[in-house]
Amino acid sequence: MAAAAARINFFLNPINPLNSKATTHLRTRLHFQPSRRRPRATSFCTRASATPLHDEAAASDPFVLTTPLYYVNAPPHLGSAYTTIAADAIARFHRLLGKKVIFITGTDEHGEKIATAAAASASTPAQHCDIISQSYISLWKNLDIAYDKFIRTTDPKHEAIVKEFYSRVLANGDIYRADYEGLYCINCEEYKDEKELLDNNCCSTHLKPCVARKEDNYFFALSKYQKSLEETLAKNPNFVQPSFRLNEVQSWIRGGLRDFSISRALVDWGIPVPNDSKQTIYVWFDALLGYISALSEDTEQPDLERAVSSGWPASLHLIGKDILRFHAVYWPAMLMSAGLGLPKMVFGHGFLTKDGMKMGKSLGNTIEPNDLVHKFGSDAVRYFFLREVEFGNDGDYSEDRFINIVNAHLANSIGNLLNRTLGLLKKNCQSTLVVDSSIAAEGITFKDTVEKLVEKARVQYGNLSLSSACEAVLEISNAGNLYMDERAPWSLFKQGGAASEAAAKDLVIILEAMRIIAVALSPVTPSLSWRIYGQLGYSKERFDAVTWVSP
């Protein structure tokens, strides 16, 4: 492991940061101006406005985004890490815009699979949930995930809000009791239509045979909302993204919606049905409410309306494509029944493969995300998956490609530009910037190039095109390296006089571009970006206060 890790180059050499005089001069930037709202912050001042992710409501409305609540039948895997890394990058970008962000993640802890997994490890379901939930929290810390709310569906406040929501839907006449007989996938915890199954009644997702079951359940009247869902998607095609996922959802709805069971008579580990303690609430009907219960403060008495008033509806649900039906069909119908607003967007991303093959324990090719982080560092893991996977599509992991991409982009392009510029500054200017960056950049084409690429990155982040945003920031570094090679300041310093002064200005310009790169890449590589900022002589407080706002 150590030998493989050594193949990742160091991003930054241990060069002393700029002195205080340099820091003072860096406060005036190529094209950045002090933020009026936060005078101590640095703000991106771009020349054109981007199309927003959504039509933004009042400035005071928070940007609320969620990952799925991850099922705790097993420790976190690479797929759940990928979703959460992407959500964290989006959350960090919106914080840079100066928005109040509520980033929700958590764990889904009820259901048959949980009880089975607990029994297999000779523990109680509650003990099992505590252990696995903590493993998610630990991984998120290792990956620099800055979430605001972590909800567990075994939390008493969540149970109270689920029961209140259930009672509201019941009062609306959308819950009824009936017998149900069908083929049940234990891994999906869902009844399946035969037309969805493979040979031998195998689930198309888990490739295991479904079992025949018959039980007395409570049902949600999903079919009642078919027309409403069709109208919602027609009026708001951005509700489901990417657009090809919308086509899938519309196809499901056109095929006719069937009422679905929202209770289980054979599952003890769950929230009891309010009007029938012999049954528990179906795990999906339970877990989806976590997006709302997470908004409830721990110090408050759990209350559905109070939780809703704290940030609902969500701006963005970020999910894997395998749970799209629950979020884009079942969930909005449930919300309609309860009289609550719908989330603004459901974004279903693709799956990850390894070396072109589906990952699985039986194939022996699974990737433990903690191992990746310990081997290569959180920034390298975050950057590779957000840069190399076109967000929304399937993506592939190869260790050789991982190492090549990280070295080429973060070490050889960005790291090398910073290291050689600081090296020249230390050797020729005693690590002191002798001219203001705005003066140094006057009439320089490189400045215009950086401004255009900053705006490009901002637009791409806003459109959830995370790979393209990374590419735009990398282009700033590539342009900086080209500028350095063309100007050859090392030769100018040797000439002395006016040539030496010109070389010093070149270093100021490049280091300002490095500061811009650090901020623009911070949603993706927060630790690396801070290290760059620190090398430039800034305090952690200044870095944490930076914003990216339009004029």
UniProtKB/TrEMBL annotation:
| Gene3D superfamilies, per database record | 2.170.220.10, HUPs, Isoleucyl-tRNA Synthetase, Domain 1
Q: Which GO terms describe its cellular component?
A: mitochondrion
Keyword Membrane: yes or no? no
Assigned EC number = 6.1.1.10
Q: Where is the Methionyl/Leucyl tRNA synthetase domain?
A: 64-422
Q: Which SUPFAM superfamilies does the entry mention?
A: Anticodon-binding domain of a subclass of class I aminoacyl-tRNA synthetases (SSF47323), Nucleotidylyl transferase (SSF52374)
Q: What class of enzyme is it?
A: ligase
User: What organism is recorded for this protein?
Assistant: Prunus persica (Peach)
Q: Where is the Methionyl-tRNA synthetase anticodon-binding domain?
A: 446-542
What protein am I looking at?
methionine--tRNA ligase
Q: What family does the entry list?
A: Belongs to the class-I aminoacyl-tRNA synthetase family.
List the Gene Ontology MF annotations in alphabetical order: ATP binding; methionine-tRNA ligase activity
Matching HAMAP family: Met_tRNA_synth_type2 (MF_01228)
Which PANTHER family is this protein grouped with?
METHIONINE--TRNA LIGASE, MITOCHONDRIAL, METHIONYL-TRNA SYNTHETASE
Lineage top rank: taxon: Eukaryota
Q: Which UniProt keywords apply?
A: Aminoacyl-tRNA synthetase, ATP-binding, Ligase, Nucleotide-binding, Protein biosynthesis
Q: Which reaction does it catalyse?
A: tRNA(Met) + L-methionine + ATP = L-methionyl-tRNA(Met) + AMP + diphosphate
